[in-house]
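REQUEST ID: PR-0412
SUBMITTED BY: lab tech R.K.
PRIORITY: routine
TASK: structure prediction, single protein chain
INPUT:
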Amino acid sequence: MDKQMYYPLVSIITPTYNHERYIEQCIKSVLSQTYTNWEQIIIDDGSNDKTADIISKYVDSRIHFIRQAHKGIWKLNEIYNEALYLSQGDLIAILEGDDFWPSNKLEKQILAFEDPEVVLSWGIGVYVDEEGKIVGKSKAPGFKSLEGKKVFRKLLIRNFVVPTVTVMIRKNALLPKGFLQPSGVPYVDYPTWFELALKGKFCFINEVLGYWRLHPTQMTRKLGVMRMGEIKIYCHLREKNLISWPTYIGLVIFSISKHARKVVLSRFFLENSCKILLWYS
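STATUS: complete
OUTPUT:
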């Protein structure tokens, strides 16, 4: 690719809250990008630790830092959309304050958007623990590019566009609605993907494009909350007449059974682990 022909500004949305242990690595991973035509919009959601002090150390005209009163995870879309509406770029990349990128992430990913039909791109994500130790990685979806209607149907079964740290979006496709978060849903990615699937193609890049940090207390690791969030999204899609009543009912039953199976398996392994420990004690 001739970079002079396609050299879009990438706006990086970075919401952060009490990330004093991680925000420096996050910012440094942006500053180390081999593709330099970017801006980073960091919104601190009322941190009460040293997050803001650490961010303030970085003086770069491409980094824009906004502090606000705490809104919390149930108003995450407001935080994302504040950054979105301040952004000047043609492409939007997501990088939360406790995550980080490989240095070639932007350079690799903008290539996907040379196809004007692509509205979203994502790639392999590496999972790390609180100390930065690698504990796993996401799986490839089995296709490179898929048109919106097929993406929509696949998303009904599960959110395969993960982790969000690898995602890049064409800004025009996000507007005017922005990031979506139906009531009772503790995240913005999954409901937003459905809206984007109505507008164009999704493109997968089979390379590591981000590092997602796992925490024991993360909302996304609580099965009950995730199940209810999933059902709320199906309800939202039904209210918008994007799925039929039979499909909605089937998906709700599927969601409940899927998460119930996880709980049963978790209890099974817990109970048997306890039995083994008792046996050898």
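NOTES: Residues 10-216 form a domain with the Spore Coat Polysaccharide Biosynthesis Protein SpsA; Chain A fold (CATH 3.90.550.10).
REVIEWED BY: pending
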